Amino acid sequence: MSEVSSTQEFQYSSPRHQAETAISGMWLFLATEMLFFGPLFLAWIYSRHWNQQGFDAGARQTEVIVGTVNTVVLVTSSLIYSMGVTFIEGGGTRRLIQCCIGAWLLGLMFLLLKFGIEWRHDFERRLFPGSDFAIDGPLRDGARLFFVFYFLGTAVHGLHMLVGLILVGWIILRARRNEFSSSYYTPVIAVGLYWSFVDMVWIILYPLIYLVGRGA
Question: Coil, helix or strand for 186?
């Protein structure tokens, strides 16, 4: 990292040390996040191994078109944010703001599609794993367990998305105050790492929800 900070804190030996510490801290935080999501994914895969037909019955009830559109939306948002990082490396604050606004709007679109449309349809079709769960018969228990993982996984991911929107909004506000330049943009990189992490979590959730076993 070639940037230097214009706001060095006293506990760091140099601006470079401060920037590298901030980025390393974000990587450490993301590593702890994987300690949460990793067991969730492993439990999902393990449970499906013992309830394959029930999980497949549940997966066939998901809205693959909405999920696919959301995947494209989220990947595009990460691409746009990455472009903003490239722009600020060259001092393009205005372009950074534009890219962050685009990423923020796409993130909001993801949440509206997921929770405003897809979740609403799921509840209307009685797919929430409660007492009046819509799927009956011998596959009921496996399908209910699938939707337990479905709602848990998407809710936690949605919460991380909401945090990401707040962070991207924070970057926009700071950029509008001209707090970033080609010599200082550490927060932009740190938030970009978090935004990309949320993207990667969804890329794992997408096949688990919509693709695995759908053709069975």
Answer: helix
